[in-house]
Amino acid sequence: MKKFLNKILIFSIILFVFNLVLGFILPIRTYYGNEMFEQKFSSIKNDLNDYNLYFFGSSRIVNGINPKVFDSVMQVNDRDINSYNLGSYGTWFNENIFLINSILNDTSIKDATFMIEFQQVMSVPWEKIDNHKNIYYQSSDNFTFILNYVLDKDIRTFRDFLIGVHYIFSYSISETLNIFNLGKLKGLESYSHSKESKKFDNKGFFAIDSRKEMNQITISNYQSKGVQLFQANESKSNGAFEKKINEIIKKAQERNISIIFILTPKNYTKEMVANYKTLPSENKIDYEKFLDQTSLFEAANWGDHTHFNFQGAQYFTEFVAKEFLILNRNEASENK
Amino acid sequence: MLFNSLDFAIFLPIVFILYWFVFNKNLKWQNLLVAAASYVFYGWWDWRFLSLILFSTLVDYFVGVSLGKTEAPTRRKVLLWISILVNLGFLGFFKYYNFFLDNFKSAFSIAGYELNANSLNIILPVGISFYTFQTLSYTIDVYKERLEPTKNFISFAAFVSFFPQLVAGPIERASNLLPQFYKPRKFEYSQGVDGMRQILWGLFKKVVIADNCAVYANHIFENSADMSGSTLALGAVFFTFQIYGDFSGYSDIAIGTARLFGFNLMQNFASPYFSRDIAEFWRRWHISLSTWFRDYLYIPLGGSRGGTLMKVRNTFIIFIVSGFWHGANWTFIVWGALNAVYFLPLLLTNKNRQNMEVVAEDSYLPSLKEMGQMTLTFGLTVIAWVFFRAENIGHAVSYLGGMFSWSFFNEPSYSGISFLKTLIPILILFFTVEWLGRRNQYALSQGLLKNNVLRKTLYLTISILVLLFYGQNQEFIYFQF
Known about the structure:
By secondary structure, chain A is mainly alpha-helical. Chain A contains 13 helices and 4 strands. Chain B is 67% helix and 0% strand.
C-alpha cells in the first residue's frame, strides 16, 4: 500500500509541475470561461475607443441597464456619452475585478468611465466549483485577496467562522483546479459550438419579460431592509475589500478612467453596506437616493424577483444616468 | 454521482482510505462500508430512488433465502415469478409505461377509438435497467440451482448496489461478483496500479474522446436538415466514437475502481470497432449485456438449435429486446432489428463464429482482407448508430437519406470544423493505443509499452489531456438506460 500511495503522490507532483508550465504556454483565450462577456467584448474590441462609458456586473446589470436610455439622458443634458453594457450573467465581485484588470492591462481604453455593480465577495458553491466560469479568473492574487478578506472579516459566531473556512476552502480548490488547467483546452475551442445564443442588443443590453407573479412584499423588503441596514452603524467594513477597491480605482485613474460603483436592488448584508459606506463619494452613487426611488421597488417593474423587466430597466437606467450627471457636476465644481 | 466529477474525485479517496485503513480488519464492516458508500453514491443523484434499490434487494434476498428452503417446484416457480414481476414491474413502470400508453393510444385512435389516459410525468431512475438485470440474474441462478442462495444480507446488499458498476454496468453475474464479497480482500500493489491505469484510460475515453465528439455529433444531428451528406456521415462517425468512448469509458472506470477495492469485474468491451463481422462485433460490444441475454433469454428460447425459422425468430427476439432494453423508443427497436438483419446471414451460413480471435493476432497490421472486413463492419455499425442517436424514426430515415445523397461527395462543411485540427491528433493517439492494446483486457494495460519512460510519458500525456478537456460534469449516455 505504501508503495502504491507513494507512486500516486509522485505522479501527482509531476503532473502538477507539468501543468504549471503548461499554464504559461497554452494559448488560452482570456475570457474563455465567461461566454457572454467574451461575445460582448469580441463584438466591440475593434471599436473600444468609440465608447466612453462601460457598465460591468452581473445579470442585474445585463437586464437592468439600457445604454440607449443612458445615452439619450446624456444627450438631453448635452453630454457626449456612448455607453456599452459589458455585464454578464453570474459575474461576481472577484470576477468583475479580474475583467476590469484585464481590460486595463490588455486594451488601450482611456478617458472613460467604468460603472460597476457593487457586490459582496462570495464563496463558491460546491456545484459550481469546477465550472469554467469559476476557474478561468482564479489566480494566486485572487487567492491572497480571499485569505486577507477572510482574516479581516467580522467573525463573531461559530457560523461566521465556518463561513470563513468555506471561503478559503472553496477558493483554494478553485485555484488548484486553475493550476491543473482544468478544462482549459475547452478554452481553445471556438464558441461557435455554444448552446447559448447571443442574447443582447448592439449595446449589450437584454430585457427580460415578467416571468411570474411578482411578490410585492419581497421587492418592498429590498427597500425597507436596505434603509434599515444603511441607517444602522453596527458592522465594520472589510479592510482587504477596501484595499482591493482602492487599487482598482488607482489603476484606472492612471488611464484617466473613473470608477463609479452602483447599487442594484437586492438583499444586502451588513458587511456589504459597511463596505459601500467606505467608498469615496466620487466613486459611488448615493445609496440614500437610490433607496428613495420608489419606482424601482414596484413589482410591476420586475421580470422576476431578482431582475428588472424592460420598464424597470428604463427607470433604473434613468436614475443611474441622472446620478452620474450629478457626480460629474460635483467633480467639475470641485476641480474649479 | 458522476465518475467524471469533482464529487467522485473526493468520494473515491475517502472510501478507499476508510476501506483499507479503518475497516480492513473486519470483512463484515468492509462490506457494510461498500453498501453504505454505494447508497451515498446513488443517493447523490436522487436519494428518493434508494428505496427502489433497497426494495429490490430485500425482495431478491428473501426470494433467494426462500428458494434455498424449498424443493417444491410450484412454490419455487412462484418465488421466481415474484422476483421477476417485482423487478420487471419497476422497470416496466418507470421506463416503459408512457411508451406503451402512447402507442396504445395511437393504435386505438387508428381504430377510431379515443383512449382517455394521460401520460405520467415519470422520472427514470438512473441505472434501473442495470441493477434490475443484475438482481434478476441472482434469482434465476438460485432458482436453476447454479448458485447457492446467500444468507448474508450485507454482502447481498453490497453486491446489488456495488457503486462502481451500479448505474451503467458491467451487469455482473451473481456467480462472479457475490462470492467475492465472502472472501477477505487484501490490497495488492499490481491490482491497485492496474485499477488506476484503467480508470485513467476510461476518463480519457469519456472526457477527451466522447465529450469532444459529442459536440460535433450533437450539433450535426440537431441540425441534420441543413447538412450535406458528407457532414452527416461525419456526424454519424462522431457519434460512433462518442458512444464507444462514453460507454466503454464508463466500464473502464467501473472496472478500475472495483480493482482498487480488490474486486474483479467482467470485461465489457474488447475493441469492438476492430471487428471483422457483426457477430464478432456483438461478442466484443457490451459483453455483459450480450451474454446476459444469451444466457437468460436466447438459450432458454432454444438458441441456435432447431430449424431455420426458429433461429431467425430467436435472433430477432434477442436483438429487438436488447434494443428495447436501451430505451422506450422505436428507434432502439429498429436499431436492434437492423443488427439482427446484419447478423442473420452469418448465422444462417454458419459463419457467425469464424472470427473468434482478435484481428491481426500475431502481426502489427491487419491484412488487406481484414482491413476491408473491418471497414465494412464499422460502416454497418455507423449506419445502425444513426437509429440509436436519432430523435425518432423519421429523423433517422431523413438523416440516412441525406447522408446517402450526392452531397456525400462534397467537402464536409461545419462552422466548428477548425477545431478538428486539435481533435484529429488526439483521435490518432486514441486509435493507436486502442489498436496496440487490442489483445489486452483494456487498451492501456501494462503490456502496451515495454519501455518504462515511454509508458510513463504516455500516462502523463493522457492525464494532462483529461484535465485540459475536462468539461462540466457531462453525463454518461448509458445513465438514461
